[in-house]
Amino acid sequence: MRKIQVRIFDNAETAAVYSAAIVEQVIRSKPKSVLGLATGSTPIALYKQLVDFHRSGLSMAGVTTINLDEYVGLAPDHPQSYSYYMHHHLFDHVDIPESQIHLLRGDAEDLEQECQRYDNIIRSHTIDLQILGIGVNGHIGFNEPDSALKANTHVVQLAPETIQANSRFFTAEETVPTQAITVGLQAILLAKQVLLLAFGKEKAKVIYEAVKGDVRTSLPASLLQVHPNVTFVLDRAAAEVLIEHGFYTSTPPRA
Ligand code: GLP
Questions:
Q1: What distance lies between CA 123 and its chain's CA centroid?
Q2: Can you give the C-alpha Rg of the chain in angstroms?
């Protein structure tokens, strides 16, 4: 049985370099790769590194991207939209043609139709590498803990802890969105390879549960245990509880 592979780095910067090197490897072995991309504060260092790699010679011109999620109600030019985030951190600085970039429209008039449009895109692609972050409650994309999860792209009511965690990106005058559109579990689990990044001690407990706990819809990231090629890329803080429980990679992390 394959387990989730875990790599623990001294800090988030090194973890981001490692992750970017994997992305480069995927692109070099298949220039027309399809990348599933995530947002949040965690992958920012990875995107910065990819921009550096691009400036030093990595072409991403053949790459297609499919983002995971978007806030309902935010237009792509809203500074807190994930569309804005992706352009700001990655797309404006690399050579992926706009026609190969797929993002959800949180401001679509008909959200159901928007979900179907996105599922058609997902169906016509195989994601070679899916980048994920993780919510403090174990969500991936915006698949929130629940008694049942959805396979396809859908509108989701955000959990109170997610709204709370994401409110740090919004000014006092702005209202934090309470709904989002997210790809479902099928798109994530059908990716050929998954790289989940997590940094910081507030993720340590959920990381332990996702890797070692039972597979359960109340902790969506635990479903990754059934995928054959998943690597969790962690800094020491996010790996703290795993380490407390005796988890070591081949060599114990330095004290
Ligand atoms: C957000 C995103 C997720 C992300 C997570 C963690 O709400 N929808 O894709 O992985 O929350 O965010 P952060 O990296 O800022 O902790």
A1: 19
A2: 17
Domains (range + CATH), the chain: 5-244 (3.40.50.1360)
Q: Residue 70: CB within 6 Å of ligand 1?
A: no
Taking CA atoms only, the protein residue closest to ligand 1 atom 5 is 135
Q: Please list the active-site residues.
A: 69, 137, 139, 144
Within 8 A by CB and 6+ apart from 130, the residues are 35, 36, 188, 191, 193, 194, 195
Cα 134 to averaged position of ligand 1 atoms, centre (Å)? 6
The token duo for 241 is: 């509880």
Per-residue pLDDT tens digits of the chain, which is 255 residues long = 779 999 999 999 999 999 999 999 999 999 999 999 999 999 999 999 999 999 999 999 999 999 999 999 999 999 999 999 999 999 999 999 999 999 999 999 999 999 999 999 999 999 999 999 999 999 999 999 999 999 999 999 999 999 998 888 888 767 889 999 999 999 999 999 999 999 999 999 999 999 999 999 999 999 999 999 999 999 999 999 999 998 865 555 566
Give the pTM.
Answer: 0.95
Distance (angstroms) between ligand 1 centre and the Cα of 133 equals 6
CB of 131 closer than 6 A to ligand 1? no
